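EI: anyone free to look at a 371-residue chain?
SC: sure, send it
EI:
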Amino acid sequence: MTFLELFTEVIKTQNSKYKDEKYCTNVRYPPELYAKELLRFTRNSIYFSRHSATYNNYELKGKRINTRHLEYARMDVYNILYKTVLNLYFSENFCDKMKFQKADSTFILNKFGIESLGRNIEYKSKQGIKISFIVESTNVPIAISFARGSDADSSIFHDTYNKFLIDPKTSKYKNNKRFKQHMLIDAGYDSDDIKNKLIDDGYTVYVGKNLRKAKPQSFNIKPISDKNRKVYNKRIGVENTNSWIKQYGILTCMYEKTIESYEGLLLLVLSYIVYNKYIKIVNKKKLDESERERKQLIHNIEIEQKRYARKLKRKNDEEQRTVEKELRKQQKQINQANLINNNIEKEKSTIYSVRIGEKIRYISIIKSKLK
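SC: here you go
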């Protein structure tokens, strides 16, 4: 199933659920078209008013796509879509993916928004909103919340922590050495309330020290140990999530009027990103299985070849032994024939010498008589 097919299926499900509501209007165009155009809009456009598409020689204007997008946001289509993708993604290696969780926030500059605005002194006091994330080991967001741009990270953490989109099951693995979960947070979250809450829930907390709130006499803070530093350095992966978001022009600034509309586009983009990661894992697994089958097939062929070679060698050895046995038999017969011939020659020589001796005696007798 492709991402568009999954998106379309969720839209159809929610349409059937909310068909009697006022904000679910009659659909002139099929949901497949709206799903395709909304995904194309997040990739290539910023303003709905400048976006358009064609369907059966009819022009589908961006205003109509925006209307449908707002309806989907009210019908919770994007939230259900993202939860569905997360369930697919965490269907395997759940414990390994949840082992290292990281929290961070990013500032989104305001353009046309009218909700949750605040001036952030770190961005030249410009107005905007903050998006707070909690991500897992592979930097996939599992909790998202929105706040004013002027709010501190520590003040919005609890709101984010209470909005998990998937249950991390922290308490289940609280006493499990292998799968015990760790929370990696920077100095902006260096708060006793946050640390105590996380420890009570079963996390091992790694937090950077906030020197701004330290007392003057406590500046000789002990550095993080090398062992803990290796774990804490994994926190930098949460910045990849911020970079994923800001690759899409529609999300770099607050072009939408409401948080609800912006959140829908954000969840759509994250769903697309996470689904692609899931497909890569599935394809890799299939590739590994095919590679394993190929290696097994090669191994079986090699075993058969060795077995055939041993069988052929055994057969050749038997044939060679049979030939050698036949040669030895023939050689034995030749030796016996030679031995018989030697005996015959000996007998002939013996008979010949006896006859000569008899002749000599006979001649000597005759000579004696003649005298």
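EI: The CA atoms of residues 110 and 128 lie 4 Å apart.
SC: 👍
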